[in-house]
Amino acid sequence: MAQNLPEDLLYAIFLRAPPSEFVLTRNAASWSETRMIPPLSFSLVCRSWRALVLSHPKLWSEIRIISETFPNNRDPIIPGVLEKWLSLSSSAPLGIYLDVRGKGHHYVSKFSLPLFIQESHRWKSASIRVYCWPGSGTNSIIPTIQCLSPLSSLSLDLRHLTSSPEIRIDLSHSVSGNSSPLEYLHVGPGVVMRLPHCRDDLRLPHLRSFHFNGMRQDQILEDLRSIIFASPNLEHLTLKAERWPTTLTPNRDPVHLPRLTSFTLTTTDRFTVDYFLDILTCPSLSTLICELDYSDDTKLEEYTFLDIRHVHDFLARSRSFRQLHTLRLRVIDMSSEFTPDCILALKDLLLSLQNLKILELRASTIPRAVFEMLTVTGEILLDDPHSRPCPFLSDIQLFYESDHYVYDFTSETVEEMIISRWKAGDLRGVYLTFPSSRAIGIEERKRIVECIAEGLIFI
């Protein structure tokens, strides 16, 4: 019956089959497994189906390779099959997905990545994540990906033991009159970027999401600023890095991002946080994640404290107090406690966030004052929500990130915060992490048990 269907109807059905997914497991990745992957499997049904499949390159243009366990089978036919697959896609725009993780996968990445890169001029979307890339060597030519049509989505993440770059993303041609069609850009480890000689000429008007976790390079902060400045329609921005160089061009104009709704900034130095909070204005911001993070080899004197007052000023300048829905702050300082000024700054910030739903606070110490400011006390009328910090919080997440066991609060302090918020009517979940057993008994207290029975999520 199916063999008698009209060709156009068959083709429409076949188009629903891609992407062609190669799952390389311990016992798979052989020719017998490959034969079952569409559209090759369709071509084995009958002569008419084979003719249809071979005459439509689009059917071969969506390819996924996933390898998460050590592949014992290194069948040499697989690279040839993949090469044939690409040739059958002819000139059709390519959708590439490569996810190779775990020790021992050099074989997979070595044969697949070069094949994909030589077809990069046809990419319409590419997501390449290789966590075991052996490195091409310092004397090898770095392949370059041109961000030109039809490429609209690009994610590159190559993690290996060397510090040399493996791929370069070239944005140098994305200038006035020749702007890039990129809508999504993820720059991960092992990747560097090339910008126009005059950074102010860069144009990325279609870019809606930019995620950077790439390699250190000279003038990286200026490069990132230029990319953000060239992307007025950004909606999601994530910046993550360690110890970025701090060479800057003075007196740069601020960057206005009217559509940005989500901003995540994670770094190891306060200078970088201050830099971006100073240059950006984001009036539509609904999610802000700001973290000072540290690696295991960070020296004690290198730890610093997130300036909460600076976060407040950034939101005030952006006029995004009313829009902010989610706030996550990591304010670790291993060498000192919350100061009175810091506590006051946090209270001022939370009082300004009248529509906040989710609050996450991570710190080396969380003092009693934080629990008290989040408690709805008897002096505050429940029918006047604007008189207390974050009146409509639905999720409270507090993480004590230190082995320091000295607290200035009691279990009763924590319980009172939870009960008062639950009675206020908006609380749905509480997530607490402390380094000792002090907090274990909280969920066993009678009033907390009653709240959990009524629907409170307590972790």
Structure write-up:
With 459 residues, the protein is α/β, with parallel strands linked by helices. Helix content is 26%, strand content 21%. The chain is built from 13 helices and 20 strands. It has helices spanning 7-14, 31-34, 40-43, 47-54, 77-88, 106-117, 220-229, 270-279, 308-318, 340-352, 368-373, 411-424, 446-454; strands spanning 20-24, 62-67, 94-100, 123-130, 144-146, 153-158, 167-170, 184-187, 191-194, 209-212, 236-241, 255-256, 262-267, 280-281, 287-292, 326-330, 358-363, 395-400, 429-433, 457-458. The strands form 3 sheets. A 15-stranded parallel β-sheet has the order 1-2-3-4-6-8-10-11-13-15-16-17-18-19-20, with helices on one face. A 3-stranded parallel β-sheet has the order 5-7-9, with no helix packed on it. The chain has a two-stranded parallel sheet with strand order 12-14.
